[in-house]
Specification:
This protein has about 250 residues and is an alpha/beta fold. The chain has one domain: P-loop containing nucleotide triphosphate hydrolases (Rossmann fold, 3-Layer(aba) Sandwich), CATH 3.40.50.300. The chain is built from 6 helices and 9 strands. The strands form 2 sheets. A 7-stranded mixed beta sheet has the order 6-5-4-1-3-2-7, sandwiched between helices. A two-stranded antiparallel ribbon has the order 8-9. It is globular and about 45 Å long. About 40% of the residues are buried. Bound molecules: guanosine-5'-triphosphate (GTP). The site of guanosine-5'-triphosphate (GTP) has 21 residues, from helix 1. The site of guanosine-5'-triphosphate has 21 residues, from helix 1.
Length: about 250
């Protein structure tokens, strides 16, 4: 049973950037928002960026949480605050890919309404490659996620195009839901996906207006418990497991 009830229906688009340590989450986030590449960026805290960006040609309030791999819930796919997830791994680090794959799978199973973008970062380090692009692309297609391989270090344009297109999709998905339209188009054709990756020149993001550093307590305040369902009852269960049924 999938739980679609945690999607945000109004207000800012909320995106969580998750993934293993040292894969380039902070570099990617900062690159997108400021166009600058920060080579050494060490942080043990989650960072929440609040800004207004041009999304699909119109100003849109966006909040991006750059999660820290060392925080408790870095890859928690149940993070209900977010309606979209950028799941980052490094193409030079198989373990980071395995972690990303688990996250993508969990999101697909438990946050079906969330939009997901799988990013293989550090494509400039092809000689150290441990993750084949086709494997990651297939994983993304299987779980109806977007996919991109890119180098945050070398290509500001790729980062902008990929994230711009993703935000556009997140916004469209939300508007579709608000207008009573069909929920997220979960199956994406390869042609459409490649088209979005090739992309067109998009307007540069406007400067970041607000940065909030979240400590653990503040981060927890953003979380509300997921309502969990007992599979046989198909009803929310107060405490799990709902004996003698199996909780999902
Ligand atoms: N070669 C290369 N290095 C990169 C790229 N993106 C990030 N890095 C480097 O990877 C390292 C980790 O980057 P971060 O942005 O701190 O990674 P993170 O995922 O936020 O790490 P945590 O804060 O530990 O969760 C830094 O030394 C970056 O310079 C890239 O595209 N290519």
């Amino acid at each position: 049973m999938k739980d679609d009830r945690t999607s945000v229906q109004s207000g800012p688009l909320r995106v969580a950037v998750v993934g293993a340590s040292e894969v380039g989450k902070s570099a990617l986030t900062v690159r997108y928002l400021t166009k600058r590449y920060i080579g050494e960026y060490r942080s043990d805290t989650d960072m929440l960026y609040k800004c207004v960006l041009q999304v699909d040609g119109a100003p849109q309030s966006v909040e991006i949480m750059d999660t820290s791999a060392s925080s408790d819930k870095t890859s928690d796919p149940n993070l209900p605050w977010a309606e979209a997830f950028v799941v980052v791994y490094s193409i030079t680090d198989k373990e980071s890919y395995q972690r990303a794959a688990t996250t993508v799978q969990e999101l697909s199973e438990r946050r079906a309404s969330a939009s997901v973008l799988l990013v293989g970062n550090k494509s400039d380090l092809g000689h150290l490659r441990e993750v084949e692009e086709v494997e990651a692309r297939t994983l993304a297609l299987t779980h109806a996620a977007r996919f991109a391989e890119l180098s945050t270090a070398e290509s500001c344009t790729s980062v902008s195009e990929v994230v711009d297109n993703f935000l556009k999709e997140v916004k469209a998905q939300r508007n579709g839901n608000q207008n009573g339209g069909s929920p997220k188009l979960r199956k994406i054709s390869v042609t459409r996906m490649l088209g979005s990756l090739i992309g067109r020149n998009s307007p540069p993001p406007t400067p970041v207006t607000h940065l909030i550093i979240l400590d653990k307590a503040e981060r927890n305040k953003l979380q509300t418990p997921l309502t969990r369902l007992c599979r046989p009852c198909l009803r929310p269960a107060q405490s799990l497991p709902c004996s003698p049924h199996t909780a999902v």
